[in-house]
């Protein structure tokens, strides 16, 4: 039996280990119907923990090294572990549903806030699954605008965790270009892929999440690219009044008054839209003198925001929306919500919290290390990203269940809240406790790695 370095167990540390046991134990039970349940569940649990531990990257070779050196898996063979990482037998659908149910208090004001966006994951290998020449709209002057990368559409849950907003990854899909699919079809050895737009993939993911959270009001918070009828129409048809959207208007969007505001009686059917008020830019200038001040919880602190609201009609969505113009010194921004019951403060705060999905992408690619792996096989690529996203969500769930707010290790001016790396450190400390191996007992050699404690002190 592998023995961790002797450490004094305080009363506050043991509950942290029990929280980790409870979360991982429920995920382990999803393998009960598998033919090799004991082996697969054990490898799955320890792989998740190895990804979260801060002093190792998520490359498959590093994960195997971590399992051997830190957790004492001496009998595991490289070929079998690599086969497991590329296996089609991991029940990801059931695992994600189990993880969704473990999120403490997922609703914000009786609503499920879902952030939707896509990101690119640059790679160097030409035969890596999902890679193509993707246009990068955020490329800098010294970077290529069409890097060789994977394009991932992701959905995350926006939730306040111990006084700060966080984004928990819930689902993802790889986006494949049409020309890439045609090239795969020409290569008879590769399995075919059906083309779907980013909006179709997003609608499918949100529909699956809505099925897990039945009869719950869902608000999808997106940027202006996703905030159109291509996403609104299919989801509004499937989910009805349970689905709403918050997004940003473009400067040239035409805005119309409500149909009942027209006093002229004309022959024919009733008008669906009132008179044209103008575009977003012209109305921003027109309504600026009517704006009021609001106190909004924005970017980690209470800020004073100058804004103006009005209920109007949008032809892009073919429905009534509430538009909020937010004014700064020389700039402005316009947000809209299909949920007319939301206040100005809620619309601004929720859209401001959408930025946390960008922070999640950074955590996935740099902190967790999903960008470093060079896995090529389709199943291995898909499994690896599942592992990384589930490890990220598990970390935030663990933080939500802690009794006390984690302290920030590295003090940064203007930032009082704890960081993602602080939670990873707490999980690593819980995984190093003597009784952690009770969850998934595995025959191991008795060994003591004195470098573990040193690395943990050095890790962020």
Please provide a written account of the structure.
There is one protein chain. It is built from 14 helices and twelve strands. With 460 residues, it is of the alpha+beta class. It has helices spanning 13-29, 37-52, 60-69, 78-85, 92-101, 178-186, 198-212, 229-239, 280-286, 344-353, 356-368, 378-401, 420-431, 451-458, and strands at residues 111-122, 131-133, 148-161, 164-175, 217-221, 243-248, 254-256, 276-279, 292-298, 301-314, 319-327, 332-337.
What is Rg?
25 Å
Broad structural category: alpha+beta
Q: Please count the helical segments.
A: 14
Percent of residues in beta strands? 15-25%
Output the helix-strand order: HHHHHEEEEHHEHEEEHEEEEHHHHH
* Structural shape: globular
Sketch the major β-sheet: 12 strands, mixed
| Separation, N- and C-terminal Cα atoms | 29 Å
Q: Classify the helix fraction into a percent range.
A: 25-40%
**pLDDT averaged residue by residue:** 86
Please mark out the parts with pLDDT under 50 across 5 or more consecutive residues, or reply none.
Answer: 1-12, 445-451
Number of strand elements: 12
Give the topology, please:
Blueprint: H1 13-29, H2 37-52, H3 60-69, H4 78-85, H5 92-101, E1 111-122, E2 131-133, E3 148-161, E4 164-175, H6 178-186, H7 198-212, E5 217-221, H8 229-239, E6 243-248, E7 254-256, E8 276-279, H9 280-286, E9 292-298, E10 301-314, E11 319-327, E12 332-337, H10 344-353, H11 356-368, H12 378-401, H13 420-431, H14 451-458
Parallel strand pairs: 1-5, 5-6
Antiparallel strand pairs: 1-3, 2-3, 3-4, 6-12, 7-8, 7-10, 9-10, 10-11, 11-12
Helix pairs in contact: 1-2, 1-13, 2-3, 2-12, 7-8, 11-12, 12-13
């Amino acid at each position: 039996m592998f023995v961790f370095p002797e450490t004094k167990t305080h009363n506050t540390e043991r509950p942290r280990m029990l929280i980790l046991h409870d979360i991982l134990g429920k995920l382990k039970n999803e393998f009960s119907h598998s033919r090799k349940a004991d082996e697969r569940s054990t490898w799955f649990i320890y792989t998740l923990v190895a990804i979260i531990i801060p002093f190792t990257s998520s490359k498959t070779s590093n994960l195997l090294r971590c399992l051997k050196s830190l957790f004492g898996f001496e009998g595991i063979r490289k070929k079998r572990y690599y086969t497991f990482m590329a296996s089609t037998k991991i029940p990801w659908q059931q695992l994600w549903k189990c993880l969704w149910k473990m999120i403490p208090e997922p609703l914000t004001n009786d609503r499920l806030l879902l952030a939707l966006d896509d990101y690119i994951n640059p790679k160097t290998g030409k035969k890596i699954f999902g890679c193509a020449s993707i246009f990068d709209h955020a490329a800098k002057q010294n970077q290529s605008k069409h890097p060789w990368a994977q394009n991932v559409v992701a959905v995350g849950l926006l939730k306040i965790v111990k006084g700060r907003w966080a984004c928990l990854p819930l689902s993802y899909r790889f986006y494949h270009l049409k020309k890439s699919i045609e090239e795969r079809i020409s290569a008879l050895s590769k399995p075919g892929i059906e083309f779907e737009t980013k909006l179709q993939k997003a609608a499918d993911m949100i529909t699956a999440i809505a099925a897990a959270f039945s009869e719950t009001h869902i608000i999808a918070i997106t940027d202006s690219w996703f905030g159109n009828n291509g996403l609104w129409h299919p989801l509004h048809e499937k989910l009805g009044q349970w689905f709403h959207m918050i997004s940003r208007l473009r400067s040239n969007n035409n805005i119309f008054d409500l149909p009942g505001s027209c006093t002229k009686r004309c022959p024919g059917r009733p008008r669906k839209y009132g008179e044209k008020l103008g575009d977003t830019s012209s109305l921003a200038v027109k309504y600026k003198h009517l704006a009021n001040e609001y106190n909004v919880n924005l970017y980690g602190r209470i800020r004073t925001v100058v804004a103006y609201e009005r209920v109007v009609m949008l032809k892009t969505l073919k429905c009534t929306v509430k538009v909020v113009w937010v004014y700064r010194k020389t700039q402005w921004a316009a947000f809209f919500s299909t949920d007319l019951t939301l206040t100005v403060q809620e619309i601004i705060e929720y859209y401001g919290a959408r930025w946390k999905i960008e922070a999640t992408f950074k955590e996935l690619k740099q902190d967790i290390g999903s960008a470093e792996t060079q896995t090529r096989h389709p199943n291995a690529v898909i499994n690896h990203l599942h592992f990384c996203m589930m490890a990220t969500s598990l970390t935030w769930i663990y933080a939500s269940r802690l009794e006390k707010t984690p302290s920030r290790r590295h003090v940064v001016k203007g930032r009082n809240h704890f960081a993602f790396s602080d939670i990873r450190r707490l999980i690593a400390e819980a995984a190093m406790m003597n009784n952690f191996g009770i969850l998934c007992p595995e025959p191991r050699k008795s060994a003591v790695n004195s470098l573990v404690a040193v690395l943990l002190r050095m890790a962020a």
